Amino acid sequence: MRFSSGILFEALIILIALPASILLNRHLGAEARGILAAMLLMPCIAGTVVSSQWDRTLRAQITSKVNSPAEVWTRTKKYTWLMSVVGLALSFVLIGTQWQLTIEQRFQAMLAALFLVPLSLAGLFMTTFLAAINDLNASYTVRVVGPVVFLLVILLGVWQGLSVPVALSANVLLWVGACLVGWFFLRSHHLTSVSVRVFDANIKTLLSPLPPFALEVMSLQADVWFLSAFVGNVVTGAYVAFRVFEFPLKVIVFGMINVGSGRVRWTNIAMVQDFVRKGSLTMALVGGAVMAGTLLFGRFLVVTVLGESFGDQVWMLPYIVAAGALANTAFLFLTVIQLQGQQALYLKIQSADGVLRIVLIGIGCLIGGAHGVLIAICAASFIKLAICGLGLVLSRSALQSSPQLEAEITR
Q1: What would the pLDDT profile of 59-81 be if each residue is shown by its tens digit?
Q2: Which distant-in-sequence residues (6+ apart) come within 8 Å of 332 by Cβ?
Q3: DSSP letter, residue 91
Q4: Is 192 exposed, middle or buried, given 0-12, 13-18 or 19+ CB atoms closer than 10 A?
Q5: Same domain (yes/no): 398, 335
């Protein structure tokens, strides 16, 4: 599959998800959308943290041929059960600390977490595994099914009366549909079960990235948490809704990563440089186009599509687009570093970025409220891009001096 095909698939996913997002935001309004964001925040953080970026690790293990697909998938199934139990416990504790939610809202969030945590873990690992073994059509089909289910539930909710509980149900059913289709495709590969133990030497592969990854996850959700806890539901709802303007940028990044993970030889410096060059140029062009459209038509689009309840928060748009372009480009660079096998460098960058982002956003919120948070997000994204760019240079130097390069040249 070519890069252009991967980007088209990503665009298809966005085109399906976009109407659902618009309908959800418009019919809930800014305040209810902020409440929904707060209710989904802790299950999302808990589920992602306990995954310990196993999706990225399993991709790297398969593409670098460290372990066989059968062994990786057997280990993945066992890890999913373990992560689900720990994730649920962590999710309940975190939800209990959300003072901005009522007791009833916290109970609803816990009920949703019972399904969201295990299903989201399973769905994430399925799609990543299928992409890593180069079954990209299956991987993208699984990813398309979820947004389709979500759209259908939201449409039904609009017809019958959309509410926060209905929106929570839509998020659960999204993962139910994705997991069912993913299970169907995995069965067709006839993967043989391999005898592996959960608590063996390989558990270090799962646990060693956990501290830096937990920092990364919390830092990426710090903006929503600070806005929800200290600014208010209206601003939080508008901020979450406006991140739809980042969709074109995510299309480029995930399209290139999903296709490149199975197509690029990551020990081949020329191929990696070409990949990075194409990604950087495309992100710059798309980011510039989105920024221009936001500045020219942002208010009109927001009021027309989402409604008047979001109109007073249009000032956020340029900050969100700028931060999105910088952060997504940095994510592309960081993923390249990991796929090249530079795990130690990857984890150092991840840890430094997590701490920096949380500190900057916290200071920004305390000093400038919502404006301070948005400025801090832009600053943190710019610094992350600079650090990841330096990391690419260091990764290239390490690769040039490794035996892998000689083997690649003679291939």
Answers
A1: 878 877 777 888 888 888 888 99
A2: 253, 256, 257, 276, 279, 280, 283
A3: H
A4: exposed
A5: yes
- CB-CB neighbours of 103 under 10 Å: 8
Spatial neighbors of 91 by CB under 8 A, at least 6 apart, are 42, 43, 45, 46, 47, 110, 113, 117
pLDDT number for residue 1:
52
Which position has the token pair 């979001």? 310
Question: Helix 343-400 vs helix 269-301: angle between axes, to the nearest 10 degrees?
Answer: 130
H/E stretch holding 192 reads: none
- Give whole-number Cα distances, 6 to 121, 131, 263, in Å: 23, 11, 11
109 in the same domain as 90: yes
Residue where a domain stops, chosen among 208, 224, 239: 208
What CA–CA distance (Å, rounded) separates 395 from 42?
A: 34
Q: Give the count of domains, the chain.
A: 2
238 shares its domain with 197: no
DSSP H or E stretch at residue 2: none
pLDDT digits (tens, 9 = 90+) for 79-115: 899 999 999 999 999 999 888 889 999 999 999 999 9
Q: Of 208, 242, 264, which residue is a domain's last?
A: 208
State the Rg of the chain over Cα.
21
